[in-house]
Amino acid sequence: MSDAKIELRNVHKRFGSKVVLDGINLTVPKGQSLVVIGGSGTGKSVMIKCVLGIIRPDRGEIFVDGKNVLKMDSGQREAVLRKFGMLFQGAALFDSLAVWENVAFGLIQGRRMKRKAAKDIAIEKLAKVGLGPEVGELYPAELSGGMQKRVGLARAIAVDPEIIFFDEPTTGLDPITADVINELIVDRVKDLGATTLSITHDMSSVRKIADRVAMIYKGKIIWEGPREKIDDSGNDYVDQFIHGRAEGPIGMDVLKP
Amino acid sequence: MNFFAIIGRVVLTLLAEIGRLSLFIWQSVSHVFRPPFFWRLVAQQMMRIGYFSLPVVALTAFFTGGALALQIYYGGNEFNSESIVATIVALGITRELGPVLGGLMVAGRVSAAIAAELGTMRVTEQIDALTTLSTNPYKYLVVPRVVAAVLTLPLLVFVADIIGIMGGFVVGTQTLDFNAGVYIKNTADFLKFDDVMSGLIKAGVFGFIIAIMGCFHGFNSKGGAQGVGRATTNAVVTASILILAANYVMTSLLFAN
Description:
By secondary structure, chain A is an alpha/beta fold. Chain A has helices at about 45-50, 75-80, 100-110, 115-130, 145-155, 175-190, 205-210, 235-245, 250-255, and strands at about 5-15, 20-30, 35, 60-65, 65-70, 85, 165, 195-200, 210-215, 220-225.
């Protein structure tokens, strides 16, 4: 397991009496793109937030580059966080800042770079996601959903992260825009040689960006394998999910509250 | 049995809330003294919290000073009203009414605004995004607001003191036909440095309460628009009650000798 970039061992998390993560075991090999699929409310977002340290798991271990991040002090943690970039589901752009300031945020605040130098990099990163320098002067509220996602992607890659998380990168986008975002993700990740962990329930996104796929159900990883295997996984849960069938082993208690 | 269960639950919820608030305050205060410092943000917040609250606080103080003068006159006109009106207006405004009413007005304006802003940032994942960009949300969001409020509230209340005394002066000389020179002399003779100072110390504490309650409820808001609304209400209500309670405690301490 020496080539594991991220490793989760037996991670548990509950909110009140609701068990969200029930012993997650997951390994993301270096330079690979792992996509976790699963229905709404199965703990996908909580899992990523545990790795980022936004949520603290009740039990278990999380390793990044072989070091247990749960045992670090805040200084070491911040050093690890510098390796991360993340694209949020709703883009989560800072609406009080111009687009370029959003993209340059990690450089200016996180790395104390001069504003002017950071702006140059921001404009370069915006170009990489297909946005012109004039967009940099706009505010997030003036952008469409697809453009916000692009800016979010530019912000995630601005600090040249080693690891990038994608939280439902195509949710809420039309199929064509979604495909554009998927391609941008693949291209930019290839540029950086980054390791990525994504969560989604969009199968076209899975087929485009994944090297490996894992399925989460009721707080556990129930299947994992290479992308080519998802169509003959031999797992009824995976089959039901990728074909989007209401009938199957995944009970209605999960689909309907 | 059921009755005791309800009491138990209320007590537990209250204790958990106090615990979370204490942790929040500890986190916030500890970051005030640790670099990096965001001076620009502090200046920006001082404008928002202090400067833009001036009209509200000034009007409150003016009318309060005026009303106070009338009340003292009507209540005590058989005595030597010309001297006691000026004195009691000055003492009442600087010791109690300036800081308390000013604090309450700013609580309504500023706690609500902070809770709404941070609450929206929370539910749109902007606060999580800060963490992924190597920026501590306490340092970036909470500290500038707390520092700005603690610094500007005394200034605001100092202005309120002057305008409140002016309100009393205007009513005294215009409506009650007092001699302007005598009024000013009475004010100056009886007003001591300690009276003003005690009010300003109170104001600093109120500033802390206002900013912390706004940030705390904003940070912990969840559940979309409704959650943000609830956070805003809770911020104003708790800030106001804490201001009144803290005022009592400080009055009993500051004037105990």
